[in-house]
Amino acid sequence: MTQPCYVRIAGAKNSGKTTLIVALTAEFTSHGYRVGTLKHTSHNHEFDRPGSDSFRHSAAGSAATIIVSPERFVLHAPRPADPQLLSLFDNIYDDCDIVFCEGHTDLSPTSGRAPLVECVAPGDNPLFEHDPDLVALVGDTIESTGSTNTTRVFARSDSNALAAWLRKRFGIKKNSKR
Questions:
Q1: What is the pLDDT of residue 175?
Q2: Tally of structural domains, the chain
């Protein structure tokens, strides 16, 4: 069994990161790949509703609460230190072929050494053009970049071409474990 390929998707607010991840996820899954996603945010969010049973469990002192339904589970727990978080990711994404990490984060088991695709909004310049992991830019008005590494440029509407390029460039294979 092989580790999944982690691909970071970054860009300025409203540059199309989520839209791109949704399109890439649909494209990969339509070809039989198992896809995982990770959303990074710099904001603190309350993920549990006050008054819910799981909220009450946490308020009473539970270190972690898992809600299990017939088809899903949700974990409510304080964020562990990075090494434990990365270990948790290894278990969650174990049978995935590719994992898209939204946000400029180093929270992937590859310790941030994952390929980076940047979404660039019309009129904006790339934010991460000097990141050594930058492999592609996605946008409709990108003319050139001062990047020191080789990057591919894809139109916002051409997520199928980006998916095919990612599969070829990083040798993404379907996990034989399934």
A1: 76
A2: 1
User: Which residues span the domain enclosing 134?
Assistant: 5-42+79-169
Residue ranges, the chain, pLDDT below 70: 1, 41-46, 82-83, 104-112, 143-150, 176-178
pTM of the model: 0.83
The pLDDT score that the predictor gives to residue 147 is 52
The CATH number of the domain holding residue 29 is: 3.40.50.300
Q: Using alpha carbons, list the distances in angstroms from residue 66 to 57, 72, 74, 176.
A: 10, 10, 6, 29
Does residue 51 belong to any structural domain of this protein? no
